Amino acid sequence: MPALQIHQIPVLSDNYVYLARDPETEATAVVDPAVARPVLEALDRLGWKLTHILNTHHHHDHVGGNLELKRATGCTIVGNRADARRIPGMDVGVAEGDAVALGAQTAQVIEVYGHTVGHIAYWFEDSAALFCGDTMFALGCGRLFEGTAAQMWSSLSKLRDLPGDTRVYCAHEYTLANAAFALSVDPGNPALRERAGRIRALRADRKPTVPSTLAEERATNPFLRADVEDLKTAAGLPGGDAAAVFAEIRRQKDEF
Ligand code: ZN
Ligand code: FE
Q1: CATH class of 5-254
Q2: What is the mean pLDDT of residues 19-45?
Q3: What is the pTM of this model?
Q4: 87 CB contacts (<8 Å, ≥6 apart)?
């Protein structure tokens, strides 16, 4: 089966909106349309026709374009069944383990509560693509607005277990600031130092640092490494429980 075609649209100050198209059937989804106009322009330019909106969570910078896109294209809006009242125009409610069909392609729904209670991710296994909203960022993770640190650690642990070649399509370009924090808690990690150098060069050229791969995140993202002894020590919790170490690293990032 031909792989999903993915097109990245930078919007607002640092959001990424994604178009994902099944080349066989031409079914096309937009993931987390913060705004409608740039999405409609990109569809026009590419000659793609929108059939679905996939929402990861209810924040305005992820659903702000829902209703205008639905009016303009008649697309179907997919979101967490448990968040039906917070996702504008939602047509299809899904839950952990459900399969979402996009033409001949299939996304698995992964429940990843923490940033919000209701956040989900869409994993297109055959195309090795993960749309994870504000749960995992390149070298970072989302703030805990609604869920607990324990929930977020368990969510990130699920994502961490996906294949290493999975491309991580997160919803924000926060990587440069994330790299500075990551280096402060994991300074002895050579893969992180090397990656931080590459990120600085990309951003100096105004190029995106997203997507990354899950293998890169596993090796360098401090929020996926709360069970590594160096990070436990940096958090002041040597030999500590991973969820507690994660909570402490997340707290330090909030104050960084
Ligand atoms: Zn958010
Ligand atoms: Fe966001």
Answers
A1: alpha beta
A2: 98
A3: 0.98
A4: 55, 58, 63, 66, 77, 79, 80
